[in-house]
Amino acid sequence: MNQKIRIGLLGCVLAGSLSATAAAAQERFVTIGTGGQTGVYYTAGQSVCRLLNRAEVQPAIKCNAPSTAGSVTNIVSLRNGEYEFGFIQSDHQHKALQGLAPFDKDGPIDELRAVFSLQTEILTVVARADSGIKAFDDLKGKRVNIGVPGSGSRDTFDEVMKAKGWTNADFALAGELKPAEMASALGDNNLDAITYVVGHPSGAIQEALTNVEAELIPVSGEEIEKFLQGADYYTAAEIPAGLYPGVDAAVPSIGGKAVLATTAKADPEVVYQLVKSVFDNLERFKRLHPAFANLEAKDMIRVGLTAPLHEGAERFYKEKGWL
Asked: What is the pLDDT of residues 113-126, one digit of tens each?
């Protein structure tokens, strides 16, 4: 081969290699904190990443959505700059902004920003049929899984316990199992009841009600009504009839919205592209989990967003004429 040709080909190879290296170096990486692998947060994070990773933008954005302990952990990770995004409960969004427990130690997170909301997260109680538990107050003296420390489920249940004047000592056992472990513990008769704040339908709740002689327990009563009056980031909610075996009537409870949050430090272009990838493919997104089926853009950009919108999200919503 002619020396000039060899040199020319080598130059092309090197140029291509350098170009690919430069492109890889420019790739932007983002992490979305989610929740337990059987929960809706995990599916939501994986779904958002799937759409964002498919987006034809330059430089490319690479999205990862690991399983985490949930809302509280995700907010702490946002504060510390470990994650760029995180799914959180709307009540924790409010508490983080105000510097209320469990975020009071380090003060308000003023830079917290909202991106959009998803499904309603409902405090869900499942009890063994032979436990004698028919109402929320019957949980006292029983073996109850109250949630993983650092999760939104645990913090919400702690709030309800405080409103009722309960402590962990009021239970025969106060379990701290992960959502993926709850159904088997209930089935093995190691627990009388499990509690979980989650969107419905939920894989963990489906497993418990399918594999165990168990039933959903209403979260209601005078003390619950008073609790709602003093906590406007929660609302009355219900688990619809027909979602689970044996559930023929709606079950009353309380709940809030699941919110995708970020901070003011997040790159506006990355936030814009994430929002665009979801809303431009909203019908596809809604098919990725039954809990997303009834989502509406007009609600997602307003309901449950107690934190200010991130400028990147706001830009997209204004371009669409939604704000």
From this structure: 999 999 999 999 99
- Domain of 105? 25-118+258-319
Domains of the chain: total: 2
> Within this chain, do residues 247 and 272 fall inside the same structural domain, yes or no?
no
Write out pLDDT tens, residues 39-76: 899 999 999 999 999 998 989 999 999 999 899 999 99
Q: Within this chain, do residues 229 and 270 fall inside the same structural domain, yes or no?
A: no
Q: List the alpha helices (DSSP H) in the chain.
A: 3-26, 40-54, 71-79, 90-98, 152-164, 179-187, 203-211, 222-229, 268-279, 282-286, 297-300, 311-319
Q: What angle is formed at CA 199 by the lines to CA 194 and CA 205, rounded to 5 degrees?
A: 35
Q: Which two tokens stand for residue 33?
A: 């904190």
Query: Rounded to whole angstroms, how far apart are CA atoms 3 and 27?
Result: 36
CB 212 within 8 A of CB 130: no
CATH of the domain at 153: 3.40.190.10
254: Cβ–Cβ under 8 A, 6 or more apart, which residues? 122, 123, 160, 219, 224, 227, 228, 234, 235, 236, 237
Buried b / exposed e along 117-155 (16+ C-beta atoms within 10 A):
bbbbbbbbbbbbeebebeebebbeebbbbbbbebbbbbb
Same domain for 242 and 143, yes or no, is yes
